[in-house]
């Protein structure tokens, strides 16, 4: 009996998937790890099939796809990870190289995940900053133009177009453009949001608020 048949006789795709961290419901359904799956579309039992992206196969195919390795490497990995009884084992050097490849893959995935989290966080920060500017605009609506001649108000008005431009990059542009933006503008994004919040607090607690002028936009 060849290596692949030995593996498939001893473990199912569900056992392997759960062993590698997939949460499978009682009905055998799970969120597919091979695409951005918000609702369970992967059926896992002896084999697996995704009704969303179409990926399918057996336990070996699942591990190969998950770790981006060959089916032969996946079979040996399953045998080693699940302590299966087979008549073929990893060469120590072969195992070391495979583990290094998997570690590198996991490192890349971790970087991608952290980058995406930052992008989502930056979008939230910039939307909040936009609302902060809007609040100030509404508060200053109707005031004499000379009452708006201060550094904080000018800073907020100048920041509007920059925020819109940045949001376009984060929400519309491709990954390469967003990565370049992250490398060059990350600190400025976070710093700008803080400066806008501080300017808003100063403007909305300044003396004019106690003079009964009412709501806001100069112009």
Structure description:
By secondary structure, the chain is α+β, with helices and mostly antiparallel strands. The chain is built from seven helices and six strands; from the N terminus they run H-H-E-E-E-E-H-H-H-E-H-H-E. The chain has helices at about 5-10, 15-20, 60-65, 70-80, 90-140, 150-170, 175-205, and strands at about 30, 40-45, 50, 55, 140, 215. Strands 1-2-3-4 form a four-stranded antiparallel β-sheet, with helices on one face. The longest helix has about 50 residues, at about 90-140. It starts with a helix and ends with a strand.
Keywords, separated by commas or semicolons:
alpha+beta; 219 residues; four-stranded antiparallel β-sheet
Question: What is the structure about, briefly put?
Answer:
This protein is α+β, with helices and mostly antiparallel strands. The chain contains 7 helices and 6 strands.
């Amino acid at each position: 009996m060849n290596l692949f048949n030995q593996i498939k006789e001893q473990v199912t795709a569900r056992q392997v998937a759960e062993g590698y961290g997939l949460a499978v419901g009682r009905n055998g359904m799970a969120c597919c790890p091979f695409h951005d799956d918000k609702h369970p579309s992967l059926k896992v039992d002896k084999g697996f099939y995704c009704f969303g992206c179409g990926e399918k196969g057996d336990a070996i195919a699942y591990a190969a796809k998950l770790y981006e390795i060959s089916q032969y490497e996946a079979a040996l990995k399953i045998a080693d990870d699940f302590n299966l009884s087979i008549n073929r084992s990893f060469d120590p050097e072969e195992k070391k190289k495979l583990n290094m490849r998997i570690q590198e893959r996991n490192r890349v995935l971790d970087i991608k995940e952290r980058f995406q989290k930052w992008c989502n966080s930056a979008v939230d920060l910039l939307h909040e900053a936009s609302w902060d500017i809007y609040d100030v605009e509404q508060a200053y609506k109707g005031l004499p133009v000379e009452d708006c001649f201060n550094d904080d108000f000018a800073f907020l008005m100048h920041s509007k177009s920059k925020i819109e431009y940045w949001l376009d990059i984060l929400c519309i542009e491709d990954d390469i453009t967003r990565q370049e933006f992250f490398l060059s503008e990350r600190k400025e994004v976070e710093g700008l949001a803080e400066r806008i919040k501080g300017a808003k607090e100063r403007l909305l607690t300044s003396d004019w608020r106690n003079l009964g002028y009412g709501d806001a936009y100069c112009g």
